[in-house]
Design a protein that fits this description.
The chain is an alpha/beta fold. The chain is built from 17 helices and 34 strands. Strand 26 (about 585-595) and strand 27 form a beta hairpin.
């Protein structure tokens, strides 16, 4: 006969097998990531002044993490004696056996009045169980009381990563330990430490002292100012020097600190590109032999590979990680094309071109790492020109690289820029500190699917996991890093840990509310949920009707709205679902709390206009990376949001030049077209927009020209609607052109014609 515990486990497993979306838990136990099985029981465990702790011999090395629990006070962790009866009170860390019916990578947490038992096969499982126990304490107002609960849990992915770039802005060791502490609370198990890049080298390499005496220091603390004003380095000790580095001992200490919390540290040492700082200190390794000329190592110079190997030897002596990240991306091949050494190597090795040269360098590094028992990992560009088997790819330019790598049989970690880059804005940029661009609210992070359907079923096992990246160009302080990472990283943690069929945004948002208490208790400078409202219209062209949806980052918000242009009051209708509209309407909405308005009133002009669904002739093509809705993008009745990657903003790298065919000659009164500008990623307003009309689509007459008045020096996100008076014009064809003076991106929204 099965034991009571086995029967409970089996019943729970069957329950969740047949009803995977079901969660039975008290409201006070809000765990992120969501556990596989969570069943509430009766009663509480209350932490006393001193808590007896017992553990199996296998877990003596990790049991000490219990001391970081805010309410567990224990003088000594007592070993369990094999074969002796188990204690009836306290906290027990038990090594699972075959009869426990527990997956190898899972843990089981049982809280009962008087006793807490965490059971797992290995250290990782025990650490995850301890993380859950700590999290429960921090998310409850009375953390000394733990609700009785049965939890059985395991990760969906083995790799659950968070990256931090310390090259653009140096971060102190104390903050890195806090970063790792928070990662461990949310069961992330890999810290990707981006240690080197053009703005600064951050790791002591004893064989090459100038890497830390010169390449670790620049003339300006502010990355943006430095980047735009000469990009010079400084000698350590000089008055203008700004930067810093980690000694080998400091790095070893951080690696050990992370390991005790179940986290592997993967170092990233950039090669063969992104190395301006190295070549300023050691110009003999560049093709030109001079500092400040280029950022790429000379591949035809054998001294380059001597440098690579010497550096990697010292890096591997510090970091026991199975992976060593070498970047491998964004190499400017200009110098290689004219370098006699590089060209000779291409001929000698019968390489096709400079792509082959770059691939040769990466594969040679991979082979060297393999001789040391390590694996190379790099951004998805390492596949260009051919990638040797065994290397792992991080997909960062979107999903295409990851899909291609997985289908080719390479292991992949998904980290696409549009979904998992935490340097993007998380709210309206007009309300936020300057960031690099893009728009990534927490809900979009949560919606990401780590295994795209385009990956062949047989190759899906090559998706090892997911990672969010934190590039710090616009994060000069640890406070700003926290603001950009939290709480978005909680969404990352859940999509990396919790099975897709058990994830639910509304349920996550409910649990998230209790985690603001945790972040406050741990002094995290998190981004608070905005009081701004988002109004978006979804248009049905066939029915010529719109559905306006209103959303808020606030939990269970009360929103009042109007459709007559007036400002909503507490007596206006309460928003309960999308609002149907069949005519042009100004929709306004306001967030209320206790009948008092909070935040600004949001407005959306819904245009039901003549051009909706009409044919658009593209006299200049859209950019293939930003097709939006292709031919329907500019006349689908829908307005774009805060980001050019939302599928409604259509991108152009040449001039904007389209003709709208209205089917018949007709009298017109007005045309509106909206553009955006965010200069960080190179998105600019057109310098001038012109509207012309025609009866036959061949001979056009200019109706009106409007010059742009948004300064190109304005770095924050800007929108401008160019409004044209078409009164007195009777035409069939309307041609709209926008001059791309800056030769960057133009992003256009709806072309509205009345």
């Amino acid at each position: 006969m099965k034991s009571t515990k086995q029967a409970i486990s089996l019943a729970a497993a069957l329950l969740f097998y047949f009803f995977p979306g079901l969660t039975l838990a008290q409201d006070s136990c809000s765990i992120i990531p969501k556990p596989s099985i969570q069943i509430a029981r009766t009663g509480y465990y209350t932490f006393a002044g001193e808590t007896p702790v017992f553990c199996s011999k296998a877990f003596t090395g990790v049991a000490g993490l219990l001391f970081e629990h805010p309410y567990i006070h224990c003088k000594k962790i007592q070993p369990l004696i094999h074969g002796a009866p188990l204690p009836k009170k306290g906290i027990l860390l038990l090594q699972a056996s075959e009869k426990d019916n527990l997956a190898l990578n899972a843990y089981r947490l049982e809280v009962q009045p008087g006793i807490i038992i965490i059971r797992a096969h290995g250290e990782a499982g025990i650490l995850n169980g301890i993380a859950t126990l700590r999290q429960i304490a921090y998310t409850r107002k009375n953390g000394r009381q733990v609700p009785a609960v049965f939890i059985e849990d395991r990760p969906a992915f083995g790799y659950r990563g968070l990256m931090l770039d310390v090259s653009r802005h140096f971060m102190p060791i104390g903050f890195l330990k806090k970063y790792i502490d928070l990662m461990s609370l949310y069961k992330l198990n890999t810290f990707h430490w981006h240690l080197t890049d053009g703005p600064g080298w951050r790791l002591e390499i004893k064989k090459y002292p100038e890497l830390t005496e010169k390449a670790a220091w620049r003339t300006q603390a502010n990355w943006k100012y430095w980047w735009n004003n000469g990009r010079k380095y400084a000698e350590m000790g000089s008055p203008e020097a700004s930067g810093g580095f980690y000694t080998a001992d400091q790095a070893r200490d951080l690696v050990s600190y992370a390991a005790k919390r179940g986290i592997t540290v993967i170092p990233e040492i950039e090669m063969p590109a992104h190395s301006e700082e190295v070549l300023a200190a050691y110009p003999n390794l560049s093709c030109y032999g001079l500092p400040y000329k280029n950022a790429e190592f000379c591949i035809g110079n054998e001294d380059t590979f001597t440098f690579f190997q010497n550096v990697l030897d010292e890096v591997m002596a510090i970091f026991p990680s199975p992976y060593i990240h070498i970047g491998g991306d964004e190499a400017d091949q200009t110098a290689w094309k004219t370098c006699p050494k590089c060209q000779k190597l291409i001929r000698d090795l019968h390489l096709k071109d400079e792509n082959g040269l770059q691939s040769y360098a990466i594969n040679r590094i991979a082979a060297y790492l393999k001789t040391k028992g390590r694996k190379l990992i790099g951004w998805d560009e390492i596949m260009e020109g051919g990638l040797a088997p065994g290397a792992t790819v991080m997909s960062w330019r979107g999903e295409k690289g990851g899909i291609a790598a997985a289908n080719a049989g390479h292991d992949v970690i998904m980290t696409p820029g549009a979904s998992l880059y935490f340097d993007a804005y998380q709210a309206d940029p007009a309300t936020q500190p300057e960031a690099i661009g893009g728009y990534l609210p927490i809900e979009k992070v949560y919606a990401y699917q780590p295994v795209p359907p385009a990956i062949q079923a047989a190759q899906q096992s090559h998706i090892l996991g997911v990672q969010a990246n934190v590039w710090t160009e616009y994060m000069p302080t640890s406070n700003q890093v926290e603001y950009m990472v939290f709480p978005r990283v909680l969404a990352l943690a859940e999509l990396a840990w919790t099975a897709d069929k058990q994830r639910n945004w509304d349920d996550f948002q409910r649990r998230l509310q209790n985690h603001y208490l945790l972040l406050q208790r741990l002094n995290v400078n998190y981004y608070p949920p905005s009081t701004a409202l988002s109004l978006l219209s979804n248009f049905d062209i066939a029915q010529k009707s719109a559905m306006v949806a209103i959303s808020s980052e606030q939990f269970a918000p009360t929103i009042h709205y109007t459709i007559d242009g007036s400002t909503p009051t507490a007596n206006a209708p309460v928003y309960r679902g999308p609002i149907p509209l069949s005519a042009s309407t100004m929709v306004k909405a306001t967030l209320f709390k206790d009948d008092v308005p909070i935040g600004k009133t949001a407005a959306l002009q819904v245009d039901v206009h003549k051009a909706i669904g009409k044919k658009v002739i593209y006299n200049a093509p859209w950019n293939d990376s930003y097709p939006a809705q292709k031919e329907l993008s500019l006349v689908n009745g829908q307005t774009g949001g805060l980001t050019y990657s939302d599928g409604q903003w259509q991108g152009f790298t040449g001039d904007f030049d389209v003709t709208v065919d209205l089917d018949t000659v007709q009298s017109l009164s007005q045309l509106k077209v909206r553009f955006m500008q965010i200069t960080g990623p190179g998105v600019f307003m057109p310098s001038q927009v012109t509207v012309a009309g025609s009866d036959d689509g061949k001979i056009f007459h200019t109706i009106q020209k409007i010059d742009n008045d948004v300064p190109y020096s304005e770095a924050t996100l800007q929108f401008k609607t160019f409004v044209f008076d078409l009164s007195g014009n009777t035409v069939r064809y309307i041609r709209v052109t926008g001059k791309n003076e800056k030769n960057g991106f133009l992003f256009a929204d709806e072309v509205v014609i009345y």
